[in-house]
Design brief:
This protein is α+β, with helices and mostly antiparallel strands and 187 residues long. 45% of the residues lie in helices and 29% in strands. The strands form 2 sheets. Strands 1, 2, 3, 4, 5, 8 and 9 form a 7-stranded mixed beta sheet that branches. The protein has a two-stranded antiparallel ribbon with strand order 6-7. A hairpin with a 5-residue loop joins β6 and β7.
Length: 187
């Protein structure tokens, strides 16, 4: 009986030790996995933060001061840009022509704030306000011009960016064109 009790106690003790060692090993792996996940999350957040900072520079400085020589800092050479009217442009040079045309009739066009900025992985979403004043003739596309009204505009806009290697490969622009035209034409 004593031997049976000693064997059972020894087996039970051995089981407790094995379970403890197993749990300790699992906790160690869990801690290592957790640490790895925390490091990956920190790196992802750092990348998102960097992309959002680059985007702030794009709107506040590059766009607002028409410094197109710096647009490559945020846009890939072969960027695809989706505009609110549904058209798609490909390439940095074409994008510069389109952006520059916005300043012909409203040379003070600018973006000064981004009240909402979020990111996930390689995608950022930024909301801001584009504002300016219609002070110069606007080309109507048929050779005629719409004469300036002197009206100010301020419209909410949003940009979704898909980033790779520190620059946007694809950009989706959103604003209400009707509201924009109503404000500059005074309707």
């Amino acid at each position: 009986m004593k031997n049976s009790f000693t064997i059972k106690t020894g087996l039970a003790t051995m089981m407790v030790i094995l379970i403890s060692v197993s749990l300790f090993a699992q906790k160690k792996d869990s801690k290592e996995d957790l640490l790895k996940q925390v490091k990956e999350l920190a790196a992802a957040n750092e990348l998102i933060s960097k992309n959002l900072s680059t985007f702030d520079t794009l709107d506040y400085i590059v766009f607002s001061s028409r410094d197109w020589t710096r647009l490559h800092e945020s846009h890939a050479k072969d960027i695809k840009v989706h505009f609110p009217d549904g058209h798609l442009e490909t390439g940095l040079e074409q994008h510069i022509k389109t952006l520059d045309a916005m300043f012909v009739y409203a040379p003070d066009t600018r973006i000064k704030e981004h009240p909402f900025k979020i990111g996930s992985g390689n995608i950022t979403a930024v909301m801001g306000y584009m504002e300016g004043t219609f002070t110069q003739p606007m080309p109507a596309g048929d050779g005629s011009f719409i004469q300036p009204t002197g009206n100010k505009f301020k419209i909410p806009m949003a940009t979704i960016g898909v980033w790779e290697n520190g620059v946007m490969q694809e950009e989706y622009l959103f604003w209400d064109n009707k509201s924009y035209m109503d404000q500059i034409l005074g309707k």
